[in-house]
Design goal:
The protein is an alpha/beta fold. It has six helices and seven strands, in the order ααββαβαββαββα. A five-stranded parallel β-sheet has the order 4-3-5-6-7, sandwiched between helices. A two-stranded antiparallel ribbon has the order 1-2. A hairpin with a 5-residue loop joins β1 and β2. It is globular and about 55 Å long.
């Protein structure tokens, strides 16, 4: 564990402190490969090494695209602060709140947005954008908890996608890695991405 832990994007304690690995009491077959164990209280625990590996993959994929080609969608209010700050720092477009269907697929809409990569905070409440992305063949990265279904997703990032602190850490890491790939530095602290 010690060698692998050294390669983590943040120290293991940071992941554990925000509960990024704590899932729900419900688990889907889709998320089984990312599950470490089920606690006595019934909560399912995700494998932190898988979480870290998948966040690295997501950061790498995001860094292949220009900010104007990416759209992040977050219907879950607990993630709004994190995604809005992520947008401000990276220039990546964010849709915080309910995504009305058609924004990606209907160019005659006043709100039409072109994107080449989508990141959703939770594929269940954000299912409208996932459906739109499928229609036009845009890859989808999704943060998935133990209760999520993962069909129609291109990259699954297992994590607690409900907690403010967990989402804050995920978006802090993604912002840091995205800016690093652009030879820029992230000055904000992890706490800046979290609601207290």
């Amino acid at each position: 564990m010690a060698k692998e832990e050294q390669d983590f994007l943040v120290p293991l304690e940071e992941y554990l402190k925000v509960g990024i690995h704590i899932g729900t009491k419900f688990r889907t077959k889709y998320m089984a490969p990312f599950i470490y164990k089920t606690r006595p209280d019934g909560l399912v625990v995700l494998n932190v090494q898988e979480i870290d590996k998948r966040i690295k993959l997501a950061a790498n994929l995001l860094s292949q695209y220009k900010p104007e080609d990416i759209l992040v969608v977050c219907r879950r209010e607990n993630g709004w602060k994190a995604v809005k700050l992520f947008s401000k720092l990276t220039g990546i477009k964010v849709f915080a709140g309910r995504y009305p269907p058609g924004i990606l697929t209907n160019p005659s809409l006043r709100t039409f947005i072109e994107a080449r990569l989508i990141l959703v905070v939770d594929p269940w409440p954000d299912k409208n954008i996932v459906k739109d992305a499928i229609k036009i063949g845009i890859p989808v990265i999704a943060l998935c908890d133990t209760n999520n279904e993962t069909n129609n997703l291109d990259l699954i990032v297992p994590c607690n996608n409900k907690g403010k602190k967990s989402l804050g850490l995920v978006f802090w890491i993604l912002a840091r890695e995205y800016l690093k790939a652009r030879k820029e530095e992230l000055k904000e602290k992890i706490e800046d991405f979290m609601d207290e």
